[in-house]
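Subgroup meeting minutes
Present: P.N., E.W., G.H.
Scribe: E.W.

1. P.N. recapped why we're keeping a running log of single-chain structure predictions: easier to compare across weeks, and new members can see raw inputs and outputs side by side.
2. G.H. added today's entry (237 aa).
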Amino acid sequence: EAERVDTLRYAWEKILSQGSEVQSYLVDIQPKFKKTLLVNVTTFRTEVDNFSKEYDENGPMVSGLAPEEASVRLTIFQSTFDDLWRKYDTYSSGENLFGLTVKEYPILGKIKKELNLLQKLYTLYNTVIDTVNGYYDILWLDIDIEKINEELTDFQNRCRKLPRALKDWPAYNALKKKIDDFNETCPLLELMTNKALKARHWDRISTLTGHPFDFESDTFMLRNIMEAPLLQFKEDI
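Output recorded in log:
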C-alpha cells in the first residue's frame, strides 16, 4: 500500500513539473504569437476592404447582370468570401485567447447574408434551367408528361417559398418565366402524346405553326416540338 502511495505521489509531482514547464513555454512564446496575430489582423482588415470594394463593383449583385453571369460571379465571390470567413473565425479566436478586443467586420456580416440569399435563388435557378433544358433532349417516344408536371409543380412551390427580397431580381423573373412557360406548354404536349393523333393532325399543327415535325423519325425529340411556337397557337391546337 505504501509503495502504491509513493508511485502516485511521484506521478503527481511529475505532472505538476510538466505543467510548470508547459506554462513557462507558453509564456515564452506568447509574445511571438501575439505579434504574428496582430500583423495578420492588420493584413486581414485590408483584405476585407479590398474584397468589399470588389464585391460592390463586380459582384453578383451588380445591376443589369444577366442571370447566367450573376451565377458565375456568385460562385467566384462565394469561394473568396468563404476563405475570408475562415480567417475571421481564426483571428477572432486568437484575439479572445490573448484577451484582446475582438474586431468586428459589419460588412462581412452584410455580405454573408446577401450571399446566403443569392445561393438560395441561384441554386434553384441552375437546377430549373438544367432540368428544363434536359427535357429538350428526351426522345418523343420516351416522353413522360406526368413526371415533368410533377417536377414543374415542385419547382413552382420552391419558387414561391423564396424570400420576398429575391423576387425583384432578374434571375427570379427568368426562373419563374421558364417554369410558367413550360408548364403552360404541358397540356399541349399531353394532347400531342395521344395515341389517337394521326399524321394528318401533325400536318395541321405543322401548317398552323409553320414548323415541320418529323414525328416518325427515331431521333424525334421534345426539342423538335418546343422549337415551334406552340403557345402562340395554343387555342387553335
